[in-house]
Amino acid sequence: MKTIENESSSKSEEHASIPKEFNGLPVEIDFDGAGRPFPAIIVDDQKFPLGMIKTMVPGGNIVEHVQTIRNIIARDDDVLICTYPKSGTHWIWEIVSMLRKGKAEYDTKIKETAMLEFISKDQIEALESPRNLNTHFPLRMLPKDLLDKKRKIIHVMRNPKDATVSMYHHFKAMRIGPEGSVYSGTFSEYLSVFISRELQVKGGWHNYVTDFEKFAKENPDYPILNLYFEDIKQDPKREITKVAKFLDVPYTEELITAVAERCEFENLKKANQEIKDDYITRNIAHDGRQFMYRKGTVGDWKNWFTVEQNELFDESFERWMSGSELKFKFSL
């Protein structure tokens, strides 16, 4: 039987097992509402989970990898998809892939094969053109050459309540701990981590989305398309047409309809299981099962937030977004 004493001892042992350094870089620890540690490496005010660095980042040195990504050379036909985690990256990547091929056919490769966080410089250079690159890196960490050459960027935003719930479940399935452990806390306990990271200078959700908003305003001639997860969910054909026009690819009503159907959540989930070689999931899932696709809905946060948590979150959200013109939908 699990007791309070056993739980406390387990958390103490987990904390004690976390190294003070990894690859010569200091490890910083956040704690959830129950004192569970969240070890991370900080690069330019951005926190990267230690477990992710160990299992996913080429060479295991996130500082060197960030610099490598900053220095990659852009190609003429590169497109970069940028999202805060759990905001529809797989979804929009598949849409872009189909539109650029002109066929509503799934790519047999997963999007992580073109994800800046997880592939080396050699792997990036080996990708065939046109490259549909994608990342969760914030604006300040994007490849300098890509920005200088004004390559197209598609930025997708999701309301932070649903993104938080989705990230909680992501951490419950993903080996983020230093010893390959998954997150064992409750949603309420995890929510405190999300809030604390929002209070940091640059590292949270609101900084991510407002940095792109500010960039678009200050660079009106830069080709950037800002989309909302909720809008794609509400009217996929309308939003997919926006993407096609932005990419300047030929399209028909039939293609848009077919892409919308193929990219429905359950169809994408099935394709990921039956068509794609999802080696990423096998490497980082604690039980080897697919966990990237859970619900893909709008408003699931209502099943997780208490009334008090929702009120406190709304107060914080108002402060975070003061001065922003971004408008988020929390239900449909």
Automatic annotation (TrEMBL):
Keywords, alphabetical: Transferase
GO molecular function: transferase activity
Gene3D superfamilies: P-loop containing nucleotide triphosphate hydrolases
InterPro entries attached to this UniProt entry: P-loop_NTPase, Sulfotransferase_dom
The UniProt record lists the keyword Iron: no
Pfam families on file: Sulfotransfer_1
UniProt keyword annotation of Transferase present: yes
Family, as annotated: Belongs to the sulfotransferase 1 family.
This protein's name: Sulfotransferase domain-containing protein
